[in-house]
C-alpha cells in the first residue's frame, strides 16, 4: 500500500510546449535509484482523486527530486502538471519504487541508453547520477524524438557531447534540423546496431519509451547480438 507525503513544487523548467520538469521538496527525505518512479496524486474539491506514475529524472539529492512530464492531451494528471501547477504549490507523491529498471552505480560495465520521447526522463537520472558517482563508466545514448522542438534536456545533452562525456545520437522521426545529415525517419535495426555499443563490450542496455518503440529496439538489439538478459525495458502507452 502506497504511503503518501505532501511535497512542495520548488522550481520548474519548461522543455517545450508539451513538457516540463518539476523539482519537488520532500517533507520526508528518501534516496531514489536512477530509473525509479513515483506516483503523483491529484484530489479535486469534491473528493475525487486520481494518480499516475512518473519517472524520476534526478535522484542525486535526498531532500529534493525531479520529475519530467509530457502532456497527454486526454490525461487526467499530466495536463495539470505541465500547464497548471505553480511553484510553491503542494503535490502528493509516494516514495520511489521499481527495482528492475535501475542502474547500479557500483557496476563498472558499460551502459547503452535508448530513449523514445519522454522515455528519456529515467535515463537522464542515470546520466546525472553517473556524472557524480561513477564518471569513468562508459555511457552512450540514442534519443529518438519527433522534431527539434520536442527535445528534452537540450542544454545538458549538448554539454555532454561537447565535453566528450558520452556519445549522444539524436534521431528525429518526423522533422529533422536543416543541418542534420540524418533525414527524418524512424530508427531501423541496422542503424541502431551501428550507433550503439558493440555486444562484445557486454553493456547493460536500458530502453524506455512508447510500447512499439521499446519492442522494436529490444528486438533489434537482440538481433545485433546482445544477450536478452542484458536488456532492460520500461514502456508506456
UniProtKB/TrEMBL annotation:
<protein>
    <submittedName>
        <fullName>Oxidoreductase</fullName>
    </submittedName>
</protein>
<keyword id="KW-0479">Metal-binding</keyword>
<keyword id="KW-0411">Iron-sulfur</keyword>
<dbReference type="InterPro" id="IPR017927">
    <property type="entry name" value="FAD-bd_FR_type"/>
</dbReference>
<keyword id="KW-0001">2Fe-2S</keyword>
<dbReference type="InterPro" id="IPR050415">
    <property type="entry name" value="MRET"/>
</dbReference>
<feature type="domain" description="FAD-binding FR-type">
    <location>
        <begin position="2"/>
        <end position="104"/>
    </location>
</feature>
<dbReference type="InterPro" id="IPR001433">
    <property type="entry name" value="OxRdtase_FAD/NAD-bd"/>
</dbReference>
<dbReference type="InterPro" id="IPR001709">
    <property type="entry name" value="Flavoprot_Pyr_Nucl_cyt_Rdtase"/>
</dbReference>
<dbReference type="InterPro" id="IPR039261">
    <property type="entry name" value="FNR_nucleotide-bd"/>
</dbReference>
<dbReference type="Pfam" id="PF00175">
    <property type="entry name" value="NAD_binding_1"/>
</dbReference>
<dbReference type="InterPro" id="IPR017938">
    <property type="entry name" value="Riboflavin_synthase-like_b-brl"/>
</dbReference>
<keyword id="KW-0408">Iron</keyword>
<dbReference type="Pfam" id="PF00970">
    <property type="entry name" value="FAD_binding_6"/>
</dbReference>
<dbReference type="InterPro" id="IPR008333">
    <property type="entry name" value="Cbr1-like_FAD-bd_dom"/>
</dbReference>
Amino acid at each position: 500500500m502506497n504511503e503518501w507525503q505532501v511535497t512542495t513544487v520548488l522550481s520548474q523548467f519548461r522543455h517545450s510546449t508539451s513538457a516540463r520538469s518539476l523539482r519537488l521538496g520532500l517533507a520526508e527525505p528518501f534516496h531514489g535509484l536512477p530509473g525509479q518512479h513515483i506516483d503523483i496524486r491529484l484530489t479535486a474539491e469534491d473528493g475525487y482523486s486520481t494518480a499516475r506514475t512518473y519517472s524520476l529524472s534526478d535522484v542525486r539529492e535526498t531532500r529534493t527530486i525531479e520529475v519530467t512530464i509530457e502532456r497527454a492531451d486526454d490525461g487526467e494528471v499530466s495536463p495539470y502538471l505541465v500547464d497548471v501547477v505553480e511553484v510553491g504549490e503542494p503535490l502528493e507523491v509516494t516514495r520511489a519504487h521499481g527495482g528492475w529498471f535501475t542502474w547500479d552505480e557500483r557496476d563498472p560495465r558499460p551502459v547503452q541508453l535508448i530513449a523514445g520521447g519522454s522515455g528519456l526522463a529515467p535515463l537522464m537520472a542515470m546520466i546525472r547520477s553517473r556524472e557524480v558517482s561513477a564518471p569513468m563508466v562508459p555511457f552512450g545514448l540514442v534519443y529518438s524524438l519527433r522534431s527539434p522542438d520536442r527535445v528534452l534536456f537540450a542544454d545538458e545533452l549538448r554539454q555532454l557531447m561537447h565535453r566528450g562525456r558520452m556519445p549522444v545520437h539524436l534521431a528525429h522521426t518526423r522533422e529533422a534540423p536543416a543541418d542534420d545529415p540524418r533525414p527524418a525517419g524512424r530508427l531501423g535495426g541496422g542503424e541502431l546496431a551501428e550507433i550503439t555499443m558493440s555486444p562484445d563490450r557486454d553493456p547493460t542496455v536500458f530502453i524506455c519509451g512508447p510500447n512499439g518503440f521499446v519492442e522494436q529496439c529490444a528486438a533489434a538489439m537482440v538481433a545485433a547480438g546482445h544477450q536478452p538478459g542484458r536488456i532492460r525495458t520500461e514502456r508506456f502507452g
